[in-house]
Prior knowledge:
- By secondary structure, the protein is of the alpha/beta class.
- 47% of the residues lie in helices and 14% in strands.
Amino acid sequence: xxxxxxxxxxxxxxxxxxxxxxxxxxxxxxxxxxxxxxxxxxxxxxxxxxxxxxxxxxxxxxxxxxxxxxxxxxxxxxxxxxxxxxxxxxxxxxxxxxxxxxxxxxxxxxxxxxxxxxxxxxxxxxxxxxxxxxxxxxxxxxxxxxxxxxxxxxxxxxxxxxxxxxxxxxxxxxxxxxxxxxxxxxxxxxxxxxxxxxxxxxxxxxxxxxxxxxxxxxxxxxxxxxxxxxxxxxxxxxxxxxxxxxxxxxxxxxxxxxxxxxxxxxxxxxxxxxxxxxxxxxxxxxxxxxxxxxxxxxxxxxxxxxxxxxxxxxxxxxxxxxxxxxxxxxxxxxxxxxxxxxxxxxxxxxxxxxxxxxxxxxxxxxxxx
Length: 369
């Protein structure tokens, strides 16, 4: 794509960013940016029914601005991916309100449909239980899924936990921003975003300079749902961004999974509600997701068919309980040394023991209840 075509794409993105259907129709009817450039303002005016917008798009000032934007993106390694491009993610394109333009920077191939994609969302006020559940499930998926991508929104809490768990387990991860690609939101996660660029990518539908406005977060959630084959909810209140992502996912016929929480925990009201209403499948371990999504042809243990983590885990739980005290906490590394179990197995068992009321986590230390 030459600089003139990129300049026009930038102009279209700026003018129609909050009108995705108009932008999509414009690009799909034209079939290519080159043809759209040749067709000019009259073609655009007939197509979207606005001579004013058409003239604005092809004005000298707007195309000059677009050229500067295109040059800036080239200098930063940012790719412009239109909905008519072969590089556009196929799953996202299937959705009715797909962005007509994506700004993307990273190493992941967004259109690679051999990669299994899981969106992970949850509360910004994540507890130790939520973070450990999120990390353990993502780490466990590595055993069954050869090519996996974790998608989230870089927010404080479960989002950032999901990205870090993916990075720690050499899993590709993608973050979707509610602002322009020239800034990171929240700013405290700038270093995390840099790590993500090395083994995944950062994507947004918003032009450079767009602030993280409230409306943008809701629109961002439709992209997370659209990019994902399934959504995992880990700790969510009954209202909020996570639940809006679930709404989008359900409307796109995506599978939804939720990690249960204690009945009195406000941060788990949303997850428990989704499970109770059969909107989401109960998820206690990674095999639940793998089995339901048919993400592997390899033999998977019978734990998939079990409502608990492991059908033979009672003895291990007893061993863990003997190592715990009701008054003095112990961290998971010490618990691993005492029980002889690896940390990943302990994490999964402790999640179930928390749900059963046998143990709890207090500031990173495990206590018998």
